[in-house]
Amino acid sequence: MEELKANQRQMKMWADGSPRDFQNMYLLVEAGTSRISGKDSEALNLYDEAIKSAGKGEFIQNEALANELCAKFWLQKGKKEPAHLYVKERHRCYQLWGEEKRARVNNKGPKTESLESF
After folding, report:
1. What is the pTM of this model?
2. Which of 66, 109, 105, 108 is closest to 86 using CA atoms?
3. Residue pair 46/30 in contact by the 8 Å Cβ criterion
4. Backbone angles phi, psi at 48, to 5 degrees
5. 106-111 long-range contacts, CB within 8 A, separation 24+
6. Which residues of the chain register pLDDT less than 70?
7. What is the pLDDT of residue 110?
8. Closest Cα to residue 69, out of 83, 55, 49?
9. What pLDDT, on a 0 to 100 scale, did the predictor assign at position 98?
10. Which domains does the chain have, with CATH numbers?
């Protein structure tokens, strides 16, 4: 955990110096840290901030990843409806990024259940 904290301190310095490039990654790691610490509300807010930051910076692959991780969070809570919204966004992002293999899910578009295979 100490190594993670040290890495986050460095990432925070980069995010402060160049928010467009590093803020989304910093927020995504913070969301994951909040999730494993049991701070669900904080984690959800941070996932959404990471998604917005990645979109604003045009890091579509990071936006897709943040949507995927947030969807998995909701699935772990047994909440398929909100998870599906994030799965749809993940699908859209990977298509925009040109990553057809990751975007394609059973050749029928996004499915919430498909996240269990990642």
Report:
1. 0.84
2. 66
3. yes
4. -65, -40
5. 110/84, 111/87
6. 100-118
7. 53
8. 83
9. 85
10. 2-117 (1.25.40)
